[in-house]
Design goal:
The chain is mainly α. The protein folds into 2 domains: 10-279, Farnesyl Diphosphate Synthase (Orthogonal Bundle); 290-393, no CATH class. The protein is 75% helix and 1% strand. The protein is built from 15 helices and 2 strands. The chain has a two-stranded antiparallel ribbon with strand order 1-2. Strand 1 (355-356) and strand 2 (359-360) form a beta hairpin. The longest helix has 33 residues, at 361-393.
């Protein structure tokens, strides 16, 4: 059975088949399947292997079909190691393999486990030419596959759905969609020339990049929200912080370098989350009680956040503009603050007791720190984002 486009030796055929195994794209879905198993608390070998194999065959189907369409149907690629008939045979073999292991998974765990697994193959098979020409489906295809791998990997172990795997699936769907938009923007000129409507082509480079980092940020926010009031372990936000630092650096890079950084950041993100779920290092650690500072508690928080605000304003070169805005806002904030305190809307027990012009001195600082922090974040995100997009266009 020949697979290679050139040569008919077994080694050539094997090389052609292996050429469609792209580790950069193959390993994350396999890791996501394993991560889903970790979320179940314990991993039974048979369901773990079966779901991982199903994930492999689904992604392999996507790679073969994508290469087949790009070379033999669209003429986009300059070369392809597999013959046209070899691509069809490989697709048939991958589909057969997927069907066998999915059926075994359904027999072992239940029919729902198989039903949850099937969409991964559908995403892979219809990626090209159906899904990869629409801005929404071309962006969400791979992230949705990762999300399904997490949910399916968990169900294969637990035999039921859970809030934690569904939450992590949402986090990865959101963050990886952002990474995918940045990745697609590296081919902006070529995609535009052939009429391929990625998000970058549909929205333009600058707006696409803004959307990408907004999605990354939204994913990080989900991690924090689910850790504070939901099913995630307390140490999960550390993963968001680690990936967030990488994403912040990536905002200053062009699309190619940003993609490299974000892909590696996604691996770090997953690794931190695996540690957080498996070991739960902060499970027995109580929240720090800064109330121990007594009357200086409120003041200490203002100093901490004020320092952050100052750093952001200096970084964004917006110190003077922020000062003008804060001074213009201050009288309105002062009257509002004085009135709400006067009629008893809220009380501030952990303060020094020092008052200035009818309100606590901490409230004066609050009216400086909060707008400074807002302006600092705004200028850092928007000012730096516009500069990076402008540099990329040039």
């Amino acid at each position: 059975m020949a697979f290679a486009r050139q040569g008919s030796e077994e080694r050539t055929d094997l090389g052609a088949l292996l050429s469609q195994v792209h580790p950069v794209f193959m390993l994350p879905p396999l890791a996501a399947s394993g991560f889903g198993a970790v979320l179940a608390g314990s991993a039974t070998p048979a369901p773990l292997v079966l779901h991982a194999l199903a994930t492999f065959f689904a992604v392999y189907t996507a790679h073969v079909k994508d290469g087949y369409v790009d070379f033999y149907r669209r003429g986009e690629d300059d070369d392809h190691p597999m013959s046209e008939a070899g691509c069809r045979r490989a697709l048939a073999c991958a589909t057969l393999g997927f069907g066998i292991v999915t059926a075994l998974l359904g027999t072992r765990v239940g029919v729902v486990a198989a039903v949850v697994t099937v969409p991964m193959w559908l995403l892979g098979f219809f990626h090209a030419p159906q899904f990869d020409t629409n801005p929404v489906t071309t962006t969400l295809g791979y992230p949705l596959g990762i999300a399904l791998a997490i949910v399916g990997g968990h169900y294969a172990q637990a035999g039921q759905f859970g809030a934690e795997p569904l939450g992590f699936a949402l986090v990865f769907l959101t963050t990886l969609a952002g990474v995918k938009i940045v990745d697609d923007s590296t081919d902006y000129q070529y995609d535009r020339s052939i009429g391929k409507r990625t998000v970058a082509v549909a929205l333009g480079l600058e707006r696409a990049r803004r959307l990408a980092y907004a999605l990354l940020y939204l994913g990080f926010v989900f991690v924090v929200l689910f850790a504070v009031g939901g099913p995630f372990p307390a140490s999960a936000p550390l993963a968001a912080v680690a990936f967030g630092i990488v994403a912040l650096v990536a905002t200053r890079a062009d699309a190619t370098v940003a993609t490299m950084l974000l892909v590696r950041g996604a691996y770090v993100f997953l690794a931190f989350l695996v540690v957080a779920v498996w070991y739960r290092p902060l499970a027995a650690v109580p929240l720090p009680d800064i109330g121990l500072l007594g009357p200086y508690t409120y003041l200490a928080t203002e100093i901490a956040f004020g320092t952050l605000a100052l750093a952001l304003l200096v970084y964004a070169d917006a110190l003077r503009r922020a000062a003008v805005t804060i001074l213009a806002l201050y009288p309105l904030a002062y009257v509002w603050d004085w009135y709400t305190l006067e009629i008893g809307v809220f009380a501030i027990p952990l303060r020094t007791g020092v008052e200035l012009l009818g309100i606590p001195v901490e409230e004066h600082l609050f009216m400086l720190v909060v707008p400074a922090l807002v302006i600092g974040i705004h200028e850092t995100v928007n000012g730096r984002g516009r500069a990076a997009a402008a540099d990329e266009r040039e």
